[in-house]
Amino acid sequence: MFRKINNWLHLWLGLISGIIMFIVCLTACLFVFSEEIKDLIYPPVRISQQAKPVIRPSRITGIVQEIFPGEPVSMVTYKKTQAIEVVVKNWDNNPMLLFLDPYSGKVLEKRIMLNKTTKFFYLMEEGHRTLWLPWNTGRLIVNYGTLIFVFLLITGLVWWYPKKWNKSTRDKSFKIKWTAKWKRINIDLHNVLGFYSMILLLILSLTGMIYGLKWFSNGLYWSTSGGASLPAWKATLSDSTKVNTGPGIGRVLDHSLDLTMQRFPDADGYTYRTPDTSNSSSSIEINAIASLGKTYANQSLHFDRHTGQEIKKEAYYAATYQEAPFGTKLRRLNYDIHLGQVLGLPGKIIAFIVSLIGTSLPVTGFIIWYNRKFGKKSKKKKS
Questions:
Q1: Which tens digits make up the pLDDT trace of 66-79?
Q2: What is the pTM of this model?
Q3: Sequence ranges of the domains in the chain
Q4: What is the dotted CATH code of the domain comprising 45-114?
């Protein structure tokens, strides 16, 4: 009786959520190597590191105004052994990417920010997160579709487990019989690949659910932190009563970057967005970037845009990875685990293969159902 209920749930939950997980897993496959592919097609501009101070934000703003008068600096990224990357214009206004010599300020190259490759990966990310539907609708479907997929993995394991273990059942459970007819090969692809990838698909699914299901995210943090509650994220705000009383946004940005570099001298790079000039409460955020695949070690400092004073954050957000307790460390690792990049390139390759298997499972499962439901009928009609 238990197996009948389990198998019935696996069948119908799979039919209901199959198209959702097909899109989610397929877009994951296509997105996982996005940074590597973009760097291959549009390589970063390399610069030999020198024992000189790098140009500061106020100088960058001046350079941009000479080239694009009146256009805002959207984002700036400093990286070791690379040119400074400056995003000019707002994201909805065909932004440009300037590459500046970090020591002289010379413009080394100009690029269109939203090229075809970047647009493609934005499209894949959007499909992965929302199925290209309106945000609230798409997120709801993806999040609960992923939850159903977790149940499918568990019920699939129960269905896969043989009632008796012998040579025949071992072969069917662990091996794909490539010499068999295509229907048997399809069943083996579903059962065998599903078994081998189950644990990793569970990890990818659960780490994805953290971003969409608040109850799951809070519950997991509570269970891994000894009963602590996950602090709500709050925007850091500048003191709007200090408008026009400080040294000016250029000097404040210079001071903020200098302090961040002093606090985190071993960072692989630094990035900041220019605060919204129409909002006097907007603050400055300077991010100290760890190397690729170690976003868990990224740190950020926040500053009042008018006075340059550092705005203190809650301990959960302010602590370094080394200082953080276990529950916080696990949460900060979540993004890198989800993409597989916590293990570097081998981890990304594994995530790609596992996502590809995840893409195949709804297809092979549907074919199994279709053959069992309609295959015999079509044979009778032919006879």
A1: 999 988 899 999 99
A2: 0.90
A3: 2-35+120-218+355-382, 45-114, 240-313
A4: 3.10.450
